[in-house]
Amino acid sequence: MPIGENATIKAYNYKKASSRVAGFRANGSDVASATVPAPGGMPGGLMTVSSNAGIKTTGVLFATFPLNGNANQGIVDGRLVAYDAGTVVTLNGQKQLKRLRINPLGNSDYYNYGKFSKFTPPVVANGMVYVPTYNNHPDVNGPADSGSIGSVILYGFK
Q1: What pairs with residue 140 in β-bridges?
Q2: How far is Cα 30 from Cα 137, in angstroms, rounded to an integer?
């Protein structure tokens, strides 16, 4: 089981009244650089949380991470995933955050967007997710089907 920056996302319950973490809630299902032997690839996942004006049921956690390889040593492919920040599902006896469908083609719950740009988390604005890449060209994707959580716009730069 990977640890540190290559471990899965972890969610905890927080008690506002006591300003304390009240306990473990769930894991995510993705591991950065899963095929790289210990201690793993770098830099791990980069995350952004977004919601609709603080409405409890609209929280979404977006994360980008190197798919395979060490982005600290070279340019590697990246993946964008999104989790429902408030919904926990049980898969194979494990509590996990619910993955959301985000592929512009509408056929999966992840998006392999090209070359990962380290230390630049996704930015969410006006219902869009902006992910910097090393693709060297803009890659603009419109909304997928009605099951999509939004559009993905990817800008490449060098």
Answers
A1: 153
A2: 27
Q: What is the DSSP string of the chain?
A: ---GGGSPPEEEEEETTTTEEEEEEEE-S--TTTTSPTT--SS--EEEEE-STT-GGG-EEEEEEESSS-TTTS--EEEEEEEEEEEEEEETTEEEEEEPP--TTSS-SEEEEEEB-TT---EEETTEEEEEESSSS-EEE---STT---EEEEEE--
Distances (CA, A) of 139 to 9, 72, 150: 27, 24, 15
Looking only at the bridges linking them, the beta strands covering 94-99 and 77-91 are: antiparallel
Sign, CA torsion 119/120/122/125 = positive
pLDDT along the chain (158 residues), means of 10: 69 88 82 66 84 82 85 85 87 86 66 82 83 69 40 41
Rounded-to-integer distance, Cα 125 and Cα 157, Å: 19
pTM of this structure: 0.77
Structure tokens that stand for 15 in this block? 């008690």
